[in-house]
């Protein structure tokens, strides 16, 4: 777990050896402690260098160990012994020095970093704080404002920035380890007291209180209900106002609170869920580690609406040449201007030059004959999409992959009109496509493993979190969204207001409640879909009772809002009112209040007081209930995939872990009992009926979410 060698006759070289990231697991901590003891007691050794194997210094604590009781030596005394040692210790930082890895570097007397190395204290993103002295040492080394920013955001910084901030002593393009050995030799005999960061006095700004207050306001606004950034601020305050030993005590108390809060578990679950999602598997046995993706050098995007434009930008900025296609000259020109503007702004923000030379714009599908992959992003109209796919089938060379950005239509029906159904898959981006991280890769029953591997790998290349899903209406994300939205509108019928429902969801942790979010997205989109599915519009059977459709409860209020031309922010009116079209400041609208009152009295609905608890339970338990059905149907491989989709595509609060993790924390038995209760109260809402999988899991003793897969593996998989 750590190799010990003597180099240059007098330097002890300690190499952490715990692939893939040299995390500080119990055996590694033990090996560091033993190696340091050996180095400090060996008279031949005059200096020590600590580095990591395979060009990675250290990725921090072994996060998997957080799930159980601490085993092996605690990290803090191991680090304290390094700092207190009487021989100079140099950290040779290559790859990453993160979390506990960065804290390890901070107790070394000198730090040499490779120019490509990245450093940071990302603990806050795991729901904790740097609790091996990081929150106390970093402010002493670089001052309060800079330390506060790094600790509360968890941002990774480059070696150059670390040098500028005074975190590292030298940056090199050469072998950092060899440089560190040379540096160590030169440091022998120099006094070490000023190199022990814990002994430094924190440079304390005169406006400390104002600074910390501003930081508190900022994190409260950015991460509603999240405890870790607030604890980080308190720890930094301790670094500014207390002696080191007392600050360490405070750091430890804050860490204990965070660890017991449940939020840390949720964040850490998210970390692993994101990595698990990349490990897709198909019923054929093909999976992420036995299927080779094709390299995509050129692509085409059909349709330059909001989605198409974002997809073009996502492709071009990772160096893929793109042909963008529109059906009319005016739309093409408009799309071209928008894409160029977006790419230029993006490049400016990243400090690189815009890859405009990779773009081509055309009105003709004939120009696509040589591209490696096509992403169709035309209107959500099956007939139109089928025509496009038929045409592509004729035009493109037989090996071109044909993908669709449909948000819920049948991918296999599109594959069926082509001469290469095995090369067809869904690539469902989320709006705005160049910003949102999620990509649902939709595996049709005929999609080949190479096609899926290529779509997943292309997603990764574009910086997306790609999740493989099955081909069913709405796939995973939008399929679950429907019952969630339904519950919100049923609650309106029963007596709630949009602002009450939004507040309950925002207090839960969503940045925006469902109605505020719908106003932002535009209400007309859903209205068009409902019209096309025969739920509303002139074709609706007049004999249909107004609050029932297709045999189930239906709430026509969203249609009534749209009929008034209220499409959300863009029209200045929606569920809320805005000062003018395009404004974002949502204000309660008395006209909506009137509409709800008139509606209720028309249907003889006696409004009742609805608690926040009911809002949360009905909206979120029904969401997870559909998630269970998706798992039963084999449309998602595991609960982690569903949670990742909701975290990255629907801004589900990370400190709740995602809908499936959330219900596991509430307790499946309780969720089952509440769904049964609500279903009894609303028997005409089939989505409230507890799913078979939920019942099965409760009957099996409510295993933790990571084990659910064992209970669904006998069920049919579409993945
Ligand atoms: C008293 C308390 C004392 C000390 C407390 C210390 C707090 C900490 O140190 S918390 C940990 C802080 N560190 C991090 O948050 C880093 C997390 N890791 C990453 O950000 C990335 O993995 C990376 C190091 C930047 C490398 O990225 P990449 O090359 O893209 O690889 P990945 O796919 O992310 O990871 C590969 C593989 O390693 C696993 N892994 C990564 N880091 C850790 C870790 N710290 N602990 C355990 N496992 C880790 C990751 O899960 C992947 O494994 P899979 O099996 O594929 O899941």
Automatic annotation (TrEMBL):
Domain 3-hydroxyacyl-CoA dehydrogenase NAD binding stretches: 299-471
Cell compartments where the protein resides: Peroxisome
One GO CC annotation: peroxisome
GO terms of biological process kind: fatty acid beta-oxidation
GO molecular function: (3S)-3-hydroxyacyl-CoA dehydrogenase (NAD+) activity; delta(3)-delta(2)-enoyl-CoA isomerase activity; enoyl-CoA hydratase activity; NAD+ binding
Residue ranges constituting the 3-hydroxyacyl-CoA dehydrogenase C-terminal domain according to the UniProt record: 474-578, 615-702
Predominant subcellular localization, coarse grouping: other
UniProt keyword annotation of Lipid metabolism present: yes
InterPro entries: 3-OHacyl-CoA_DH_CS, 3-OHacyl-CoA_DH_NAD-bd, 3HC_DH_C, 6-PGluconate_DH-like_C_sf, ClpP/crotonase-like_dom_sf, Enoyl-CoA_hyd/isom_CS, Enoyl-CoA_hydra/iso, NAD(P)-bd_dom_sf
Recorded catalytic activity of this chain's protein: (3S)-hydroxyhexadecanoyl-CoA + NAD(+) = 3-oxohexadecanoyl-CoA + NADH + H(+); (3S)-hydroxyhexanoyl-CoA = (2E)-hexenoyl-CoA + H2O; a (3S)-3-hydroxyacyl-CoA + NAD(+) = a 3-oxoacyl-CoA + NADH + H(+); (2E)-hexadecenedioyl-CoA + H2O = (3S)-hydroxyhexadecanedioyl-CoA
EC number: 1.1.1.35, 4.2.1.17, 5.3.3.8
Keywords: Fatty acid metabolism, Isomerase, Lipid metabolism, Lyase, Multifunctional enzyme, NAD, Oxidoreductase, Peroxisome
Pathway info: Lipid metabolism; fatty acid beta-oxidation
CDD domains on file: crotonase-like (cd06558)
Family: Belongs to the enoyl-CoA hydratase/isomerase family.
Subunit structure, as described in the record: Monomer.
Record-given protein name: Peroxisomal bifunctional enzyme
Source organism per UniProt: Cirrhinus molitorella (mud carp)
